[in-house]
Amino acid sequence: MPETPEQFDACHVMDEGEILNPQLTEVPLHEAVLYGDRVLTAKFSKRLSCAIKHLPIRLRFRYNHSTEEAIERGIAKDPTLVLDGEIFLEGLVPAEEITRAFEEYLAK
Predict the structure, then answer these.
(1) Left, alpha or beta for 85 (phi > 0: left; psi -120 to 50: alpha)?
(2) Contacts of 56 (CB under 8 A, 6+ apart)
(3) φ and ψ of 92, to 5 deg
């Protein structure tokens, strides 16, 4: 039986500070920041929640809508996902590409 509303529907727009897969306490907690405008980052966060919910990863999620901060970090595409301080995915990529990128990341 699901313990949280998010577990009823894995596909959802993620909240600021939300931890995806919080029950996986045996794996490290990764930090993700999604840069871009509010509409595209919301779409990306929903794809992200769908694409990686089944993977063995815990992810604390934040948004940054500051164009100036994005430029300072060298971010050129909207939206961009920064994982543990490094640019990880750029643009509104399909869920399949998100899954594949995280699978490759976890396989390292």
Answers:
(1) left
(2) 21, 24, 27, 106
(3) -85, 75
Gap between the Cα atoms of 101 and 81, Å rounded: 12
Tell me the per-residue pLDDT of 39-88, one tens digit each, with 9 for 90 and over: 999 999 999 999 999 999 999 999 999 999 999 999 999 999 999 999 99
pTM for the whole structure: 0.88
DSSP 31-77: EEEEES-HHHHHHHHHHHHHHHTTSS-EEEEEEE--HHHHHHTT--S
Return the structure tokens found at 81.
Answer: 């996902």
Domains and CATH numbers, the chain: 5-90 (3.40.30.10)
- According to DSSP, the β-strands at 19-20 and 29-35 are unpaired
